[in-house]
Specification:
Largest sheet: 10 strands, mixed
CATH architecture of the largest domain: Alpha-Beta Barrel
CATH topology of the largest domain: D-amino Acid Aminotransferase, Chain A, domain 2
Catalytic activity: L-leucine + 2-oxoglutarate = 4-methyl-2-oxopentanoate + L-glutamate; L-valine + 2-oxoglutarate = 3-methyl-2-oxobutanoate + L-glutamate; L-isoleucine + 2-oxoglutarate = (S)-3-methyl-2-oxopentanoate + L-glutamate
Radius of gyration: 21 Å
Family: Belongs to the class-IV pyridoxal-phosphate-dependent aminotransferase family.
CATH class of the largest domain: Alpha Beta
EC number: 2.6.1.42
Bound molecules: pyridoxal-5'-phosphate
Function: Acts on leucine, isoleucine and valine.
Distance between the termini: 21 Å
Number of domains: 2
Number of helices: 7
GO molecular function: L-isoleucine-2-oxoglutarate transaminase activity; L-leucine-2-oxoglutarate transaminase activity; L-valine-2-oxoglutarate transaminase activity
Helix content: 10-25%
CATH superfamily of the largest domain: D-amino Acid Aminotransferase, subunit A, domain 2
Amino acid sequence: MALHIEKIAKSRISEVDFNNLQFGHEFTDHMFECDFEDGEWQNPVIKPYQPILFDPSAKVFHYGQAVFEGMKAYKDDDDKIWLFRPEQNQERINISAERLDMPSFPKDLFFEGLTTLLKIDSEWIQKGEGNSLYIRPFIIATEHGISASASNRYKFMIICSPVQAYYAGEVRVVIADKYSRSANGGVGYAKAAGNYAGSFYPARLAREKGFQQVVWTDSCTHEYLEEAGVMNVFFRINNTLLTAPTSDRILDGITRKSIIQFLESEGIDIEVRPIKVTEIVEAARKGELLEMFGAGTAAVVSPILGFSHQGENFELPKVENSYASFIKKSITAIQQNKAEDKFGWRYEVK
Ligand SMILES: *Cc1c(COP(=O)(O)O)cnc(C)c1O
């Protein structure tokens, strides 16, 4: 299946101020598109970034049959372009797709579309500290008709957005005791669009109380800590890091699993096990809860300064030599080809 390429007449890159980017707001000149029709993926094309036209009855608008991925490309000082564990994203979008009863997207075509697009839009990947290109692959149900059943037509797309270092500001969180992001047997482990839609309202309520995010707990008892906003979450009690095991309800983050592997190789204590809310609250009272941070592609590591639990507020101490900053520095150095890649995580786009 030949990849058709249609290039833009004139690049928009000169209109973009790369020093003042709003996260995910500007997009590169081109996008990748491929349609699923008559039981197969067909007509892969790279074409100028542009709006897409759908029938108002397209199933994605009504039933939310949509999954996505988030990944980043970096350019090193020698103009080489690097991805971080992209095969993990490729596998995961198909895991997500299966759960939403959508067809899987072929690995070869994923990589051909992705790498060709990155080479065509390589000028948009800026060198230098904190700069990268955020890549958003996604699949949506495009069949027209509002019967409540899986679509017979889909569109796979990749769009790309230049970003600077992600800084969320000071983050304090509310530990969820009413709302849930996901449930047993549900779609929490999938990167399904609807998981995000369902999290916005509880996040708004948290913001209205002065907290930037929600830490999700298990939907049955709200006794176990699971994720922070749309990131996996780590806790440091004394010199041990804790994170919850993945499950139906917890997304298997690539940043999370990379951090676990990195910590093990550094000889830092890391426990992957269910974490009780009461354990964290008690550790905080004793001054033993030294750090909390979210982990995900956009920010890599996002420190959390405090939390609220059933109306009581806890503030974390300021620690020297924080694990969060050590991990962030170490992982980003690997991502940007500034440190040895002993895990084989980097993937060169050439
Ligand atoms: C995407 C996502 C993450 C982080 O995954 P990464 O692969 O590290 O980017 C964590 N939790 C949720 C709910 C997510 O959607």
